[in-house]
Design a protein that fits this description.
single chain, alpha/beta, eight-stranded mixed β-sheet, seven-stranded mixed β-sheet, 36% helix, binds zinc ion
Amino acid sequence: MRRVLIGLVALAGAGLALGWYFQAEIGERLFAQGIAAAMNRDDIAALPDGLHVAMCGTGSPIPDPSRAGPCTAVIAGDRIFIVDVGGAAVRNFGPIGLPVADVDAVFLTHYHSDHIDGLGELMLLRWTGGGYSRPLPIFGPTRLDAILEGLAQAYTPDTGYRVDHHGEQVVPPSGQGAVARTFPVPAENALQTIYNEDGVRVQVFAVDHGPVRPTVGYRFDYGNRSVVISGDTVRSEMVARACDGCDILVHEALNSDMVEVARHRVEASGNARLAQILEDIKNYHTSPVEAEEIAELGNARMLVLTHIVPAVPNGLIEAYFLRGTGEAYRGSTVLARDGMWFSLPSDSDAIERD
Ligand SMILES: [Zn+2]
Ligand SMILES: [Zn+2]
């Protein structure tokens, strides 16, 4: 028995030594296989016809290494739409199977920096990856033009370098950047259609994120399925009206008890400025319990909480974040994480999760 054990240990040691000696060769094979797998991957084509939601960023302005800034992808038939593009969100696209070069349009809810931090990166990678001759359409409320003009200015040197280096055939200059599709914010209580093509309808509605104005939410309909995205807002019955029996309500969430605990600690440490900011942010978001009240009022079949404030790095803190939920709402509540997928096949009742 002892001999067998000694033999096994010796074998394992020899294996490790061989692995160590051929590290670069093993890495070379893994790299080539990884590239081939990435090139052959087409997660979108594998989806059933329907409406799908991919969480490309579930965080907020508060740094959280496990969550990119706010970003929700909505795939409707063969169209790919991105709602808000927070910092680091675009870096999630590859790992979660979203082809950045195939994005059809972006919808912005408002212009807080955390919702647009990744916009320049998305515009650039879509252009260089797709070789488009027309810029990316971006839908948003008033002031969008100024933001896109500023971004165009910031990216002017880079655009020049890319065209000089790769040539106009590969990266047509006319396709770089974005074109603003600005819309007036709908009146209170109104839903307004801003996109209606090939069975995909997108409606917009005003929410309350004062003093940040305008701020809107979106409703997507395709194949008799529907998804509503709240945008940043206090508890707003307009979100419930926009949902009105929707399949999935993607709602922002801030736990003000947790923010208060953080504020208290920050104040005690002598950082009055950060304590003030933490005090201020409590008054323009929705708590998880309030989001459930809105989901119940709007008869949502599933509630997906995103834009998570503060950072919730593990399961125990997630449970704390959700404390008090499960009473006001009869549907199911999901605390979103980056990379989660939800699928709503056309003309069915199914909600599939991955
Ligand atoms: Zn935000
Ligand atoms: Zn905001």
